[in-house]
Amino acid sequence: MNIQPQDTPVARDQWHIPWSCNHISLQDALHSLNRVRNDPDEIPLLIQLVENPKYRLPGISWFHGRVDLQQHDCVHILLGRGLLSKDEAFVIGFTMGASGTRSSAEENAFCSIARHLYPDIYQFDDEDISIFKDALRLAQVNRPAELDSFDFRPWMQQSLAKLRHAAGIDNALLTAYYRLEQQRYPNDAASGRLL
């Protein structure tokens, strides 16, 4: 999707700014996303407990790469991902992998929770889990900035191309992976529109 005029309605499941659309600003992309994203109060508590650092339980360390909704939205845009299940899996996996500190036990625990305990519409299927794991490995190979703590605020007026460079996102690596994902899942809406 190229950025739509404000009065053009876009369904949540159709929102997407492709990887190749790197000339727009982060602020314009966020404005577009804000028109379709969930209200924070609509996100189930279990997902907030697992993914949002605001929900800390004393003595329990959940997962690395946890971010609040604003940070999560910025990572969606940074990585050129929409809001479908495979997109969510990729964004969470890449963010966790970019944190640099996670174990295979942590990875397996997250996969089990996302596959079996998340509410139905948020559950990851086998393909989502595969993409999550791919994204973890890509982030480890890419070694970008730690996206859970990256400060997006100074980059609001900058193009996505400049932001991606500043965050250390390897354009060639993600382009190659997105082509591979398109080949693996040729009939999937999320994978088919990546580039």
Describe the structure.
With 195 residues, this protein is mostly helical. The chain has one domain (16-192). The protein has 9 helices and no strands. Helix 5 (104-117) packs antiparallel against helix 6 (126-142). It is globular, with a radius of gyration of 16 Å. The mean pLDDT is 85.
- Supply the helix-strand structural class: mainly alpha
Mean pLDDT: 85
> Termini separation (Å)?
10 Å
Shape: globular
Helix content: 40-55%
Low-confidence stretches: none
Number of helices: 9
Strand content of the residues, in percent? under 5%
Characterize the biggest β-sheet: none
State the total count of DSSP E strands. 0
Q: Which radius of gyration do the C-alpha atoms yield?
A: 16 Å
Could you say how many structural domains there are in total? 1
Element-level helix/strand string: HHHHHHHHH
Describe the secondary-structure layout:
Elements: H1 26-34, H2 45-51, H3 69-78, H4 85-98, H5 104-117, H6 126-142, H7 160-166, H8 171-184, H9 189-192
Helix pairs in contact: 1-3, 4-6, 5-6
